[in-house]
Design goal:
This protein is mostly helical. The chain has 21 helices and no strands.
Length: 464
C-alpha cells in the first residue's frame, strides 16, 4: 500500500511539472514560472506532511524521489560553477583596457562584502538584544545535545587553524583538486588561479600578440559554450525550486519551530532589516531599489530554496549581467567572491545573534561596547573563506564563538530550526553579492543604466 502512495505522490509532482511546462509553452514569464514552482512546492510539501506526518516511511521515500529533481538540479548548477568562474574571469581580465582596473574592481567588491557583513553583525546584535534572546531560555533535548557534542568535536579542527593558515588555504597548490570543489575555499582558489592566467595573457599580449590572440579566441569559444550550458541548466529552475521547496516543507519540524518561534522571528527580522539596508544602499548610488528588487527576486527565490550560495553563482552572474546591466567582469568576480566571503546572513547576522545569546551564560554583558567591537571585528575577519553551501553558517559560528572564548555546544540548541533560518540567510548572502557587484559597477562607471532600467531585461536574463 505504501508503494501506491509513493507512486501517487510522484505522479502529483510530475503533473505540476507538466503544468509549468505548459506555462512555458504559453510564454508565461520566467519569474511567474519560478514563483509558481515555489508556491506549489510549499502547498505540496504542506499537504504531504499533513497526510503522512513528518518522519513517516512514505514521506521519506517520497522526498527521496523528489530529490532527483531538486537535488539533481542543484548538482547540475554546482557542476558548471568551476568552468563558469574560471572561463568568465579569464575572459573578463583579457578584455580589460587597463590592468589597474582589476585591483580597483577587486578592492571595491571585497570591501563592500566585508563592510556589509560587519553591518549585518551589528544588526544581529541589535535584534538579539531587542528580542531579549538567551540560550538559557531554550531547553536541550537529545537531538540538541548530540548536535552540541558534534560542534565541540569540530571545534578542534577550527582551532587548529591559525589566521595565516586560513589565508594560505585561499592559495591553490593543486588547481585540479580545487576544480573538484574538494575544499571550502576551492572557489576562491579557482578565482585566484583564473586571475593569474588572465594577467599572464596580458603579459603575453605585449610580447607575443599572435599567441595571445590565439589563446583569446580559444577562451572566447569556451566561454560561449559554457554560457550556453548555463542557459540550458537555468531552464530547469522552476522545476528545481518546486521539488526543493516541497521536500523542505514536507521535512520541516513544525513543532520545533513553534518552540523556538521567538528566535525564528528575531532571525527573519534581522534578515529583513539587512535586505532593507541593501536596498537603501542601492538607492544611495542613484539606482531605483524597486527595479533592483524586481530583477533579483527569481535568483533570491532559488537561493532561498536551495540553501546554496555556491550553487546560485550561475544565476547570480546571469542576473547581474543581463538584468541589472552590471559589467561582465564585476558580475563574475562579485558572484564568485560573494559565495566564499562576506556572507551577510551566514557569517554576519547568525554568529552575532548566537554570541549575544550565549554571552550571559558565561558572565559577559552583551551590551558592553568592547564586547560588541571585538565581536564585529572578529566576524569581519572570519567571514573570509566561509563555504557557500549548507553548513557554512555553522562553521562561521564555530570560528566566532571559539575566538570569543564562548562554549560552542550551545549553538546546537537551534538544530530544529536550522534549515528554516538557513533559507533566509542564504538569500541574504546572495543578495549581498549582487549588491556589491551592482555598486562596484556603478562606481567604476561600467553599469549599463539602460539595461538596469529596462523592465523587459528580466526576461532576457534566461532567454527562456
Amino acid at each position: 500500500m505504501d508503494v501506491l502512495y509513493i507512486v501517487l505522490n510522484i505522479v502529483v509532482l510530475l503533473a505540476i511539472i507538466g503544468l509549468i511546462i505548459w506555462m512555458q509553452k504559453k510564454h508565461f514569464s520566467f519569474t511567474k514560472r519560478v514563483f509558481t514552482g515555489l508556491g506549489l512546492g510549499i502547498v505540496l510539501g504542506t499537504v504531504l506532511q499533513l497526510i503522512y506526518g513528518a518522519g513517516s516511511e512514505v514521506l521519506t521515500e517520497t522526498t527521496g524521489w523528489y530529490s532527483i529533481v531538486g537535488s539533481g538540479y542543484v548538482r547540475l548548477l554546482m557542476m558548471i560553477v568551476v568552468p563558469l568562474v574560471m572561463v568568465s574571469i579569464i575572459q573578463s581580465i583579457i578584455n580589460l583596457e587597463k590592468t589597474a582596473e582589476l585591483g580597483k574592481m577587486s578592492a571595491w567588491i571585497i570591501g563592500t562584502l566585508i563592510s556589509l557583513t560587519m553591518v549585518a553583525a551589528l544588526v544581529g546584535i541589535l535584534t538579539a538584544t531587542v528580542f531579549d534572546l538567551s540560550a538559557e531560555q531554550i531547553e536541550a533535548g537529545q537531538a540538541e545535545s548530540e548536535r552540541g557534542s558534534m560542534l565541540e568535536d569540530r571545534l578542534g579542527d577550527v582551532e587548529a587553524q591559525s589566521t595565516p593558515d586560513k589565508i594560505l588555504n585561499f592559495i591553490p597548490s593543486n588547481i585540479f583538486l580545487d576544480m573538484t570543489g574538494e575544499r571550502s575555499t576551492s572557489v576562491i582558489a579557482v578565482v585566484i588561479f583564473s586571475l593569474i592566467v588572465g594577467i599572464a595573457v596580458l603579459g603575453v599580449r605585449r610580447k607575443n600578440p599572435e599567441q595571445a590572440e590565439t589563446f583569446t579566441k580559444i577562451v572566447n569559444s569556451f566561454y560561449a559554450v559554457v554560457m550556453r550550458i548555463v542557459t540550458l541548466i537555468l531552464r530547469l529552475t522552476p522545476f528545481g525550486i518546486l521539488a526543493l521547496m516541497a521536500n523542505t516543507v514536507a521535512s520541516t519540524d513544525f513543532a520545533g519551530i513553534v518552540e523556538l518561534g521567538k528566535f525564528v522571528i528575531a532571525s527573519y527580522v534581522a534578515l529583513a532589516v539587512m535586505f532593507i539596508i541593501h536596498l537603501v544602499l542601492v538607492g544611495v548610488f542613484g539606482l531605483n531599489p524597486l527595479v533592483y528588487l524586481r530583477k533579483v527576486i527569481p535568483v533570491l527565490g532559488f537561493a532561498f530554496t536551495s540553501r546554496s550560495s555556491a550553487g546560485t553563482i550561475p544565476l547570480n552572474i546571469q542576473a547581474q549581467r543581463n538584468s541589472l546591466g552590471v559589467n561582465e567582469g564585476v558580475a563574475n568576480m562579485s558572484a564568485s567572491f560573494g559565495a566564499t566571503m562576506g556572507q551577510n546572513g551566514c557569517a554576519g547576522v547568525y554568529p552575532a545573534m548566537l554570541a549575544v545569546m550565549i554571552a550571559p551564560t558565561v558572565g559577559i554583558d552583551p551590551l558592553d561596547p568592547m564586547f560588541i567591537l571585538q565581536l564585529v571585528l572578529i566576524i569581519g575577519i572570519s567571514s573570509f573563506g566561509i563555504a557557500g553551501v549548507g553548513g557554512g553558517a555553522t562553521f562561521a559560528a564555530l570560528i566566532v564563538l571559539s575566538s570569543m572564548n564562548m562554549p560552542v555546544a550551545l549553538a546546537g540548541l537551534l538544530i530544529s530550526v536550522e534549515a528554516l533560518i538557513d533559507m533566509g540567510r542564504t538569500a541574504l548572502n546572495v543578495n549581498g553579492a549582487m549588491v556589491s557587484g551592482t555598486i562596484t559597477s556603478r562606481i567604476m562607471k561600467t553599469l549599463n543604466l539602460k539595461t538596469y532600467n529596462d523592465k523587459t531585461a528580466i526576461e532576457e536574463n534566461t532567454s527562456l
